[in-house]
Amino acid sequence: MTPDQMRDASLLELFSLEADAQTQVLSAGLLALERNPTQADQLEACMRAAHSLKGAARIVGVDAGVSVAHVMEDCLVSAQENRLYLQPEHIDALLQGTDLLMRIATPRQRRGLGGYRRLCGPDGTPARPVAADRQG
Fold it and tell me: Which segments constitute the HPt domain (predicted)?
């Protein structure tokens, strides 16, 4: 293994550890948001976790992770800015995105990323969050 390959492997391992920590934050926060979709502290924690994952994925060149985390971050920012009221289907999609990010970050599970295409556009760019009727 060359020094560059060792460095890349170390970075990917760090990304996997970061993804594990941040997806735990996302899972807990999203479950709390399922009960109360307007909890500002949970929206902030989830948005920051998605943002951190996007940056970590970008650093190690995992484009699928960047795209999925970006879509999730956009959705959470829309909810923070009251442009989107999180419905159960949004929470379900965000939880699926969380699972997908963990699969992307786990080397043995990187194959079979069909769920990635459901969260991103055909060219791999993030799909825009769908605005739902605001309640309140």
Answer: 4-108
Tell me the CATH number at 8: 1.20.120.160
Dihedral sign (CA 7, 8, 11, 17): negative
> Does residue 124 lie in a domain region?
no
Q: pLDDT digit string (tens) for 29-56?
A: 999 999 999 999 999 999 999 999 999 9
CA nearest 66: which of 130, 119, 24, 7?
119
Total tally of structural domains belonging to the chain: 1
Burial of residue 135, with CB atoms counted within 10 A of its CB: 0-12 exposed, 13-18 middle, 19 or more buried: exposed
Instruction: Spell out the residues 6+ positions from residue 32 whose beta carbon is closer than 8 angstroms to its own.
Output: 39, 42
Q: How far is CA 79 from CA 2, 87, 94, in A?
A: 45, 10, 12
Q: What does pTM read for this prediction?
A: 0.76
Residues 84 and 78: beta-carbon distance below 8 Å:
yes
**Which alpha helices (H) appear in the chain, and where do they start and end?**
3-35, 40-60, 63-80, 88-105, 114-119
